[in-house]
Amino acid sequence: MIEVCSFEPKHESDVVELILRIQRDEFGLSITEKEQPDLREVPSFYQSGKGEFFVAVSGRHVVGTVGLKDIGNGNAALRRMFVAESFRGRKHEIASRLLSRLLIHAAAQGISEIFLGTTEKFLAAHRFYEKHGFRWTSLEELPASFPRMTVDNKFYVRRCEGPTLEARSV
Q: Is domain 2-168 classified as CATH 1.10.3720.10?
């Protein structure tokens, strides 16, 4: 049984471990926890304003994450979409469940657009976002308040006009 729920402080260590493991081992990024202070500041960084941070939990372990950062003017940034390798794919549909939960939350909060940044290398991520209604946008079209990460070089946006049929089924 896998539960998708809002982040609580008890999830912090698992969240940090999951994200760092994926960044380092799978993506080959030489990035540290210290370079990502938001990982230890989830309540103040993500769960403020209209933002939220969701985790997928299997047993007692976090196996997926996604954050929604309120960036003002009815806009938000999708960040920290990570799923443990053994929980990816159609069998568990963790990424889809996390995104659906985030979209329901965003619609309920009156968010009008959700932006995200990724790298050109993550082709599977591009397909996932496009399948779920995100469209490519240029760097120039991003809101000035968008929290761009240095590795981001491909950007997406999705209008948020209420929960989708898919989102309602979660």
A: no
